[in-house]
Write a structure and sequence with these properties.
Blueprint: H1 13-26, H2 39-46, H3 50-62, E1 66-69, E2 73-76, H4 90-99, H5 102-106, E3 120-121, E4 124-125, E5 128-129, H6 142-155, H7 170-184, E6 193-196, H8 199-210, E7 215-219, H9 224-232, E8 236-240, E9 242-243, E10 246-247, H10 252-255, E11 259-262, H11 276-287, E12 293-297, E13 322-327, E14 339-342, H12 345-354, H13 364-375, H14 378-401, E15 408-411, E16 418-423, H15 429-438, E17 441-442, E18 444-445, E19 459-463, H16 469-484
Parallel strand pairs: 5-17, 7-8, 7-11, 11-12, 12-13
Antiparallel strand pairs: 1-2, 3-4, 6-14, 9-10, 13-14, 15-16, 16-19, 18-19
Helix pairs in contact: 1-3, 2-3, 6-13, 7-13, 14-16, 15-16
């Protein structure tokens, strides 16, 4: 492995080693299964510190280009697990990738922002956008997805192009059931699962099942998109106070509601992880009346960076009180648009009796692709790779924010793809957002997620999922400059 390391003030040495090896793999000059030199040998050969090579290998490992085999060393990962651009040279692809804006590179899930268009700040633009809605699309296994799609279209019979079941293909629902049980502890049968094109459709369907004009409780702050959906249903929405454990179950009785929308695994936007005691309180409340239900939105439970994984609320439900909802948009790609809902038996009976004539909104071809992607282990490998990538970004962000801890409280850092910063000296949120924007950095105020007006917030959200490590470093540097003034 011979190449020239530059010492002219460009990229640091470990980045040069990382970029060179990545390019060799992408151009297939290093083949799948090929053994890389040991860190000690390569460090001696290149006349650099061993820690420099360790950093480069660590980055390649976190992005899934190489794998570590105990007592054997580092090896290039199988080709189908890597992202190759087959129609461009690797160098051209890298240049194109680096020239894209953050929105084009990652894909936006924030409905308020058009992909690829940075918003103006005065006469300039946002150079860094800490959006909590973005994900990193650079690690998507395009090669695998393309191979599965090609195989399905090549060997598909006419049945695949016929109208499918209203709840989604049974094979996919069986795969989802196995995945949910193994990863989230969810206990359900395939007939309880309904597949739909995004949570919006499933919430629309749920409105038909639960009925119109019901009274529903939501946390404040909460996920504003769901709040707007419920408003469009003419639901009567009651906000319920939160504490450090999440929604207060003792306030639900006062609110006189028949349903409660909760995010126990990682509440948006506060990042609260609901402890088992509070979950039991919510289930006890739901058991108090025959037609009470908890709607559990488990939207990004895959990304947890500290502590042991916590099973879903539905895993503790013994009396059919939890309506469980999840999506693959956050874990795979926003454009996948495949979500699922698990209905308790009583609501399932009502759905089948009155609303099963609604057709499934997901193409059967897309369902088949996703089924094979999960069933054959590709999804698990993709998740493992993305967890490492996001954890590296998460740790880098916390490290870059370390000098600001004297002035800011950091919270919500145990899971998900964003953290919260609260000014200890009470600087208003609007000033934090304004001063960041003047430096070309976009941050998001907590008040944007408020259902009801609250006292002036001093908290902003910093998302890191769609940012590169350089953008995180640059963005936090600019925030320090903005807020130290």
């Amino acid at each position: 492995m011979t190449f020239q390391l530059r010492t002219d003030g460009g990229n640091c040495l470990y980045e040069q080693i990382y970029e060179h090896i990545k390019k060799e793999i992408r151009e297939r000059k290093l083949l799948a299964g090929e053994k890389l030199p040991s860190t000690r040998f390569l460090a001696e050969y290149l006349q650099v510190a061993r820690s420099t090579v360790d950093c480069a290998y660590g980055q390649l490992l976190s992005e899934g280009y190489i794998e570590s085999r105990p007592c054997k060393g580092y090896f290039v990962c199988p080709m189908e697990d890597l992202f190759f651009l087959e129609e461009e040279s690797a160098s051209g692809a890298e240049e194109k990738h680096s020239s894209l804006s953050g929105a084009e590179r990652t894909g936006r899930t924030d409905p308020g922002k058009q992909p690829g268009k940075a918003e103006a700040v005065g006469e300039g633009k946002f150079s860094v956008d800490f959006s909590p809605f973005d994900i990193d699309m650079s690690g998507f296994p395009f090669g695998v997805w393309k191979k599965i799609t090609k195989n399905i279209l090549t060997y598909a019979n006419s049945d695949l192009f016929a109208k499918g079941e209203s709840q989604g293909d049974e094979e996919l629902r069986r795969t989802i059931v196995r995945y949910l049980h193994s990863s989230r502890g969810v206990n359900c049968r395939p007939e309880q699962v309904i597949v739909g094109a995004g949570n919006d459709y499933l919430l629309l369907l749920l409105e038909k099942i639960l009925g119109r004009h019901i009274r529903i409780a939501m946390e404040n702050p909460t996920y504003k998109r769901s709040y707007r959906m419920f408003q469009s249903f003419a639901y009567r929405i009651a906000t319920v106070d939160m504490d450090e454990s999440g929604m207060r179950a003792d306030k639900l009785g006062e609110a006189k509601v028949s349903a409660a929308y909760v995010m126990p695994s990682h509440q948006f936007p506060t990042g609260t992880v609901m402890p088992i005691g509070r979950r039991m309180e919510l289930l006890k409340w739901a058991d108090g009346e025959p037609d009470r239900y908890l709607i559990e939105d488990d939207y990004d439970s895959e990304y947890r960076f500290r502590g042991k994984p916590i099973p879903a609320l539905q895993a503790s439900d013994r009396h059919g009180r939890v309506i469980y909802m999840g999506t693959f948009s956050k874990a795979i790609a926003p454009a996948i648009r495949i979500s699922f809902m698990v209905l308790p038996d009583k609501l399932l009976e009502k759905y089948r009796r009155d609303f099963s004539f609604y057709s499934c909104t997901v193409s059967r071809i897309d369902q088949s692709i996703l089924n094979e992607f999960i069933r054959d282990g590709y999804f698990e490998r993709h998740l493992n790779k993305m967890r490492k990538i996001y954890q590296a970004k998460h740790e880098l962000l916390l490290e870059c924010l370390q000098p600001m801890r004297k002035d800011f409280l950091i919270s919500g850092e145990n899971a998900g793809l964003h953290i919260l910063l609260t000014a200890k000296r009470g600087m208003p949120e609007r000033e934090l957002v304004k001063q960041a924007a003047e430096k070309g950095v976009r941050v998001y105020g907590l008040s944007e997620s408020m259902v009801e007006e609250a006292p002036d917030s001093a908290t902003v959200l910093l998302g890191f999922g769609g940012l590169t490590e350089r953008e995180i470093e640059e963005g936090t540097r600019l925030l320090r400059e903005a807020w130290e003034q």
